[in-house]
Amino acid sequence: MLYGNKIKAAGLIAGLLIALIIMVLSVVLGYTNTSLKQAIEAYTAFNGSNEHLIIQLSRVPRSLVGMAVGISLGIAGVLMQALTRNPIASPDIFGVNAGAGFFIVFGVTFLGISSIQQFMWIGFLGAAVAAGLAYALGSAGQGGLTPVKLTLAGAVMAALFASLTQGMLVTNEKALDEVLFWLAGSVEGRKLSMLAAVLPALVIAWVISLLLSRQLNAFALGEDVAISLGQKTVVFKLAAALMVIILAGGSVAIAGPISFIGIVVPHFARYLVGNDHRWIVPYSAVIGGIMLVMADIGARYIIMPEEAPVGVVTALIGTPFFIYIVRKGIFQK
């Protein structure tokens, strides 16, 4: 664990430098290997070569998309785990990603939507519906809301929306062709225009999440304690939940439902900086971006010359970690 604010700040700066290096590697590595010099010349001395086109149209956009989505999912995981006091809370475990995915597939299948702006808004709606249903179901019955009940409710919502999504795709072959690779979670083939459509909303959510980090510390002490400290917990929870919806919905709209980043990343951040959310949130953002871009690089090599969806790689990383959390006994009522 890093002790002292100066050391934590230095660690954060180091993380940003690592993130920059990983993004550079993402630009130059792949089936068609290129060099850093070629990457620079693609923008300073463009000659129309295959390498320059790949860098401009594929590698740089997917690197930027991967970093933005990783940042968003990392922060969303922190917010969900803090709000629910559940160490395995994340947008995918609680069905938020599945809800956003279902609504987007519904829009493609029955409404004919095709633009990323439409994907974004219907993704936000799906994320909000799934989150609301999971919370309502987890709060029902004797004893009110508990981590176990909320997790089970989220699993039910994830299974429900996944089943409905598969049902629609079985009956619509055209929609299946359009969204199958996207549903596995991928940043391949994403254009800068797609990122530009969702980036303003994501950046606003990043900033607000950072501003909420101090209140997360008070809320983590217990809702009664937070109220006694003057926190308007209802407003705070609504604001934090809205940020989760924006971050998860925007991420799903551009990259599909990518799993496990939201679970794994906050735990790595806590291991490094402790339980102070003023540091957990920015560290989770940086680690999330690094992890997703690294997973995307790995996805290029697993079944080369083909590419695996990045969601498959993150699942391979996250599943053992998920099992470790449960077996260690962190997940309790």
TrEMBL record:
InterPro entries: ABC_BtuC-like (IPR037294), ABC_transptr_permease_BtuC (IPR000522). Its main location: membrane. It holds the Pfam family FecCD. The chain crosses the membrane at residues 12-31, 64-82, 94-112, 119-138, 150-171, 192-212, 238-268, 280-302, 308-326. The keyword Transport applies. Keywords: Cell membrane, Membrane, Transmembrane, Transmembrane helix, Transport. It is a multi-pass membrane protein. It is found in: Cell membrane. Belongs to the binding-protein-dependent transport system permease family. FecCD subfamily. PANTHER family: FERRIC ENTEROBACTIN TRANSPORT SYSTEM PERMEASE PROTEIN, SIDEROPHORE TRANSPORT SYSTEM PERMEASE PROTEIN YFIZ-RELATED. This is Iron ABC transporter permease. It comes from Fictibacillus nanhaiensis.
